[in-house]
Amino acid sequence: MNKELLEALNILEKENNISKDTLLEAIENSLITACKNHFGKADNVKVSINRETCDFNVYAEKEVVETVEDPLLQISLAEAKMTDPKYDIGDVIQTTIDSKKFGRIATQNAKNVILQKIREEGRKSLFNDWYCQEREVVPGIVQRYLGRNVSINLGKVDAILNETEMVKGEVFKPTERIKVLVLEVKDTPKGPRISVSRTHPDLVKRLFESEVAEVKDGTVEIKAIAREAGSRTKIAVKSNDSNVDPVGACVGLNGARVNFIVSELRGEKIDIINWDDNPAYLIENALSPAKVICVVADEESKEAQVIVPDYQLSLAIGKEGQNARLAARLTGFKIDIKSETQARELGLFEELGLEYQEENAGYESYGNVQDEVHGYEPKFENDYQESSLEGDHQE
After folding, report:
1. Which of 15, 126, 247, 292 is the most exposed place for a label (fewest CB within 10 A)?
2. How many whole angstroms separate alpha carbon 390 and alpha carbon 256?
3. At 355, which helix (H) or strand (E)?
4. Cβ–Cβ < 8 Å for 233, 223
5. Residue 138 and residue 126: Cα distance in Å, rounded?
6. Which pLDDT value is given to residue 159?
7. Is it the case that residue 382 has pLDDT exceeding 80?
8. Going by DSSP bridges, is the β-strand pair 92-96/269-274 parallel, antiparallel, or unpaired?
9. Measured between alpha carbons, how far is 31 from 51 in angstroms, rounded to an integer?
10. What's the mean pLDDT in 363-370?
11. CA angle 174-180-182, nearest 5°?
């Protein structure tokens, strides 16, 4: 019987990640509870269990007295001497309790105590496992729609993908495999309640960490992400090794790495740009694929003035302002974009300390020391290096 108990405990420990000591402690408490239900009280009852063999012994500590008034707490001197002649008045003797004589109700209560402890520990273990995975990407299987929300099976537990965390227009089919970001894990009486997301920017970050070895080991660092889920993401990367190209590492050979992530995000476009500590250069990179004439960035006010060629204005702003909006989120600057003609008409070149040269349409900085000024002469095909993948992934 004890061998079967030991095997059962080992199985529970392995499958439910509950320590054997915790289960044995639950058995001890259940036996004490059974004694209390059987005898009415169990203040003097002790349980001893061998952790290796699961052999257990239930006994009651009784005081040796001349006249017994409470048989649950006392034992007569004559009866004690039958056990050992050395006992005398006032001694405490341990008497074995036969647990097999417990009534049905006491046994059922003991069983319920064990089962309750197993459920509690299993729930606690499951919560701890998933709590450590907050902000991590995990695979899941779509189960069914719950109204406008979706139930996702993550293995031993289900998660809820709320409508607000779903990409607009994204539709799932039952048994479909998707990857989600664990947003929050709450402990409830019915087990951990897990909320997941498909729209959070960290989903893109974690996907790059899992797919790009250089990002995972820290060689390439993701400095900033701006995302409009389902449409476009801009990500700024920096290399901590001069021999590693951060954009190339993220794109991969023939775009293999970024294509995998794009596929996982169901066609969402991804712009990968180089991070630069100089905000002017960073803003220029962030506005990619548009070409820039000059950028004047004020770090104190977090505002930037950008001048682009006339034919690049719509590209810099993007459809419905998306390119400029994502660039602003990525850099943290409020970006005002003007075309070359607009800047000349408004006198921005003089205001920003840039001299407009009619001969070659070039610009020179007057040296505004408080601002970051970055200017180009208009030979864009040589001055700007653009890395693209099928028109969706640009440096």
Report:
1. 15
2. 12
3. strand 354-357
4. no
5. 15
6. 95
7. no
8. unpaired
9. 16
10. 36
11. 125
Give the tokens for residue 67.
Answer: 């006249």
User: Taking 80 as the threshold, does the pLDDT of residue 249 lie above it?
Assistant: yes
> Token digits for 361?
């349409």
Measured in Å, how far apart are the chain's first and last C-alpha atoms?
69
- What is the C-alpha to C-alpha distance for residues 18 and 275, in angstroms, rounded to an integer? 47
Q: What is the mean pLDDT of the chain?
A: 83
CA distance 31 to 62: 18
| Tokens standing for residue 293 | 């004439």
Instruction: Say which amino acid occupies 73.
Output: L
Q: Which residues pair with 151 in a beta bridge?
A: 144, 160
Residue 9, amino acid: L
Give one word for 332, left, alpha or beta, with left for phi > 0 and alpha for psi -120 to 50. left
The conformation of residue 253, written as its DSSP 8-state character, comes to G
User: For position 381, what pLDDT does the model report?
Assistant: 33
Which tokens is 15 given?
Answer: 């499958």
Q: What percent of the chain has pLDDT over 70?
A: 87
Residues in the chain: 395
Q: Which two tokens stand for residue 127?
A: 């919560």
Residue 317 near residue 328 (C-beta atoms within 8 A): no
Q: Which long-range contacts (CB under 8 A, 24 or more apart) does 200-205 make?
A: 200/165, 201/225, 201/226, 201/227, 201/233, 202/135, 203/137, 203/179, 203/265, 204/233, 204/235, 204/261, 204/265, 204/270, 205/235
Nearest by Cα to 226 from 340, 95, 104, 318:
318
With beta carbons less than 8 A apart as the criterion, state whether 45 and 58 touch: yes
Classify residue 288 by its DSSP letter.
Answer: T
Its pTM stands at 0.71
Q: 306: which 2 tokens?
A: 């950008």
List the one residue out of 144, 198, 196 whose CA is nearest residue 169.
Answer: 198
Instruction: Measure the CA–CA gap between 322 and 5, rounded to whole angstroms.
Output: 64
pLDDT band at 101, cuts 50/70/90?
Answer: low
Q: Which amino acid is at 340?
A: E
Q: Calculate what percentage of the chain has a pLDDT beyond 90.
A: 51
Tokens of 70: 């409470």
Q: Radius of gyration of the chain from Cα atoms?
A: 36
Cα distances (angstroms) measured from residue 330 to each of 190, 248, 251, 349:
41, 20, 19, 26
Four-residue CA torsion sign, 30, 35, 36, 41: negative
